[in-house]
Structures are given as structure tokens and as C-alpha cells.
Amino acid sequence: MKGLHVVGVSHAYGDKQVLDNASLLIPAGEVVCLLGPSGSGKTTLLRLAGGLERLQKGRIAIDDEIVADKDTHVAPEHRGIGLMFQDYALFPHLYIIDNVTFGLFGQPKDQARRRAMDMLDQVGMTRHATSYPHRLSGGQQQRVALARALAPEPKVLLLDEPFSGLDTNMRGQIREQTLSVLKASGVATVMVTHDPEEAMFMADRIKILGANGRILQAGRPHEIYYHPRHEFVAKLFGLMNRFEGVVKGGCVEIPIGKIRAKGMGEGRKVEVLVRPEGVTLESDSDNGTPVEVISTHLLGHDNIVRVRLTEKAGDENGKELYVRIHHAFEPELSKRITAGVDPEYAFIFPLDKEGGMSGNGNISVSQPEAAE
Ligand SMILES: Nc1ncnc2c1ncn2[C@@H]1O[C@H](COP(=O)(O)OP(=O)(O)OP(=O)(O)O)[C@@H](O)[C@H]1O
Ligand SMILES: [Mg+2]
Ligand 1 pocket, 18 CB below 6 A? Predict the structure, then answer.
């Protein structure tokens, strides 16, 4: 297969285990995002793939050629990889064009220059070919670094938090442009990020690393968002409304509705996590559980509403919920509002940690994903 294949890689610094049997499969043309907390081994995994770190256990292949295993260590410059780190590492004393040409040693000079100009054109930076890096903004430097990494036509591109130095506005724009350059090049890309939304935007597939260096879940963005197998994965995308309950008649009842608990044993104690967009609100309706509106904030497309359960919710009286709804619905503080739950955004996890299934069925909780 063309692309990067990491199989069963474990790594320790001294006696500190940072990766535990991690596997990745990235076909040419795909972008895979590694998402995980600080210290979960994301950079270590990139460094191992790039050959900057000696492999201790497992196997790494690029386009079906083994580049690292217990007997092999192909040097970084012979792996056909492009690297780009957070600080871009442009050479301050070289013009932009010479920065991009730098990786094309061995090619005739005019050919290298043509290739570099072509790459600068793809990232919209030809105008700056004869500037020095310090004359460019962060976003412009990022684009030059991308052009430099892609100029030698690597088989695999390794990006470590490539947008973290950019402000929010610029980030959105640059990542869109970066994605189209990556897709046009057909390179297999691994990108590390801290930002779940960025991963959702960029990735064909997302790998979630847990604090113990194990891959907790892998899947397409839709799967990660709508079918989190692990509480940690569910909580990555921000605030959740949390309830506890017991499985009865195949369902769990929470104050704002009843959710099917497929595959979960009767009488099992569970927690239910509901995304803010999974709480539905209606005004002057007979459906749902009465709530008091505490505040509403317009966020543009959405409204963020804080509501409080009333005495009708029994034990949960007074509990506050966070709701995200379409901006067209602006609940007035004085009106009668009721809340319900959309089960698509509700996830059930066992509290006794013996394993089980999530709210939308078919997902086992406690077993991390097996190696690919
Ligand atoms: N060269 C090294 N020597 C010893 N320990 C190291 C070395 N490099 C990394 N570590 C440790 O290994 C763990 C994983 O580090 P790594 O940089 O891979 O994490 P990360 O997921 O990239 O974190 P971050 O999100 O903060 O960049 C951390 O605890 C780190 O302190
Ligand atoms: Mg890192």
C-alpha cells in the first residue's frame, strides 16, 4: 500500500512508557489527525515515523518498504518524508525561494527553482519569493514552511501542530488552504493537533490518544463525534451535560427523557452524557420537562442557552443544563419552556467500568481499539 504504515509501536524514555502498541495506517492522499492530551506521545509518534527517534518496538513502513523495525533504521533523509513543526524553522538568512529550494539538493538548479516557484504559487506566496522570513506574518511563514516540506514530493508529510502559532481568524483560512494543497499533492499526511474542531475539519480519519499513550479510538470524524466509544472521547468536543441513571427495561431515564441503552445489562449503573446540541427546547408545548431559562447568548449561528431543571425533575431539581440551539429560537426568560433530549447526541457509559455499550448501540466501551 502506498502511504505510511505504523504497526504495534511502543516507546519508553527511560522507564517512562509513552506509547503503548500504537498503530496507524495512512494511505496516500489521506490526512490522519492525532488528537490527544499533552504528553500522550503524539510528537514521539511523529519523530519515530520520521526517523528522528530510534524505534524500540514495532514496525514502520513507507510505501511498503520497511524503514524501521528491530533490524532496520533508514535515516530521515532517505525516508521520503516532509516534516513541519510548530515553529516552521525557516532559515532566517535565506530568501523565501532559497528556503523552499533547500530540500531539493541534488536537482539541477533551474529545475529546483522552477519546482520551488511552483510550490510557492500553490500556497499563494510567489510575490514574497525574494523576501526574508522575518518580513512575513505567521500565516505567510506557515505557507512557506508547507511549500518547503512538499517541494521534494515526499510520500509522507508529518505536521506537528502546524497552526498553533496562528490567531483564530487566520487559522480557519490557512487550514482550508493547507488542506487543498495536501489533497492536490496526494501525500499521506499525519497531523498532530490539540484542537478537536481542527481535527474534524482536516481529517479523513482521527486517532485519539489517551494519556497512557494508547489509541483510544480511531475513525472518521462523524464516527468520533456521534459514536464516541470512550467517555474521554465524548468529552473532547467541549462541555457535556451529565446525568446518572440505572438501566431499566432496556432504557435509562434522565430528567429530560428516556434513552435506549442497547446492549447494557438490566440494573446497570450508568452515566449519560448529552451534548449541548442534544438538549431540545420548545416554548408553550405540552412535551418535555419544564425548565427555567437562566441566560441566552447569541453566538452567531447558534444560541447558547443555560436552563435550570425545576421541581418536576425530582432529585435533579435545580440542575443546570447547557443547550445549543439554532439562533432562530430565542427563548424568552418569561415564557414556559420545556426541554427534551435528542438521543443522537446522548452517550451512555457504564459507571462500574466492567465494559458495556454506548447509547447509540453497537459500540463497546472499555476495550481500546486493536492494532490495525
Ligand atoms: N527526549 C525525551 N526524553 C525524555 N522524555 C521525553 C523526551 N521526549 C518526550 N518525552 C516525554 O514523553 C512524553 C510524551 O512526549 P511527547 O512530546 O511525545 O508528547 P505530546 O503528545 O507531543 O505532547 P504535547 O501535546 O505537549 O506536545 C512526555 O511526558 C515527555 O515529557
Ligand atoms: Mg507534541
Answer: yes
Q: Give the orientation angle of helix 138-150 with respect to helix 109-122, to 10 degrees.
A: 130
320-326 vs 251-254, strand pairing mode: unpaired
CATH number, domain of 329, equals: 2.40.50.140
Identify the nearest ligand to the CA of 207 by its number.
Answer: 1
Burial of 369 (0-12, 13-18, 19+ CB in 10 A): middle
Closest CA to ligand 1's atom 7: 13
Q: What is the pLDDT of residues 38-74, one digit of tens each?
A: 999 999 999 999 999 999 999 999 999 999 999 999 9
Residue 159 has which C-alpha cell? 505536521
Tell me how far the alpha carbon of residue 223 lies from the centroid of ligand 1, in angstroms. 28
Summarised one tens digit per residue, pLDDT across range 224-262 is 999 999 999 999 888 899 999 999 999 999 999 999 998
Ligand 1, atom nearest to 161 Cα: 27
CA–CA gap between residue 326 and residue 329 (Å, rounded):
6
Say yes or no: 317 and 170 in one domain.
no
**Ligand 1 pocket check: which of 43, 48, 56, 212 to mutate, most ligand atoms within 8 Å of Cβ?**
43
CATH number at residue 19: 3.40.50.300
Q: What is d(CA 286, CA 339) in angstroms, rounded to the nearest whole number? A: 10
Using CA of residue 8, residue 14, residue 15, residue 19, what is the dihedral sign? negative
CB burial class (10 A; 0-12, 13-18, 19+) of residue 321?
buried
Which ranges of the chain does DSSP label H, i.e. alpha helix? 42-50, 96-101, 109-122, 138-150, 168-185, 196-202, 221-226, 231-235
Q: Which of 166, 194, 226 is the last residue of a domain?
A: 226
Same domain for 94 and 175? Answer: yes
Residue 55 within a domain: yes
Instruction: Please report whether residue 367 resides in a domain.
Output: no
Range of the domain at 146: 3-226
Hey, which residues does 209 pair with through a beta bridge?
A: 215
Residue 333 C-alpha to ligand 1 middle, in angstroms? Answer: 49
Q: Per residue in 75-104, pLDDT tens?
A: 999 999 999 987 788 999 999 999 999 889
Taking the C-alpha atoms of residue 292 and residue 324, their distance in angstroms, rounded to an integer, is: 15
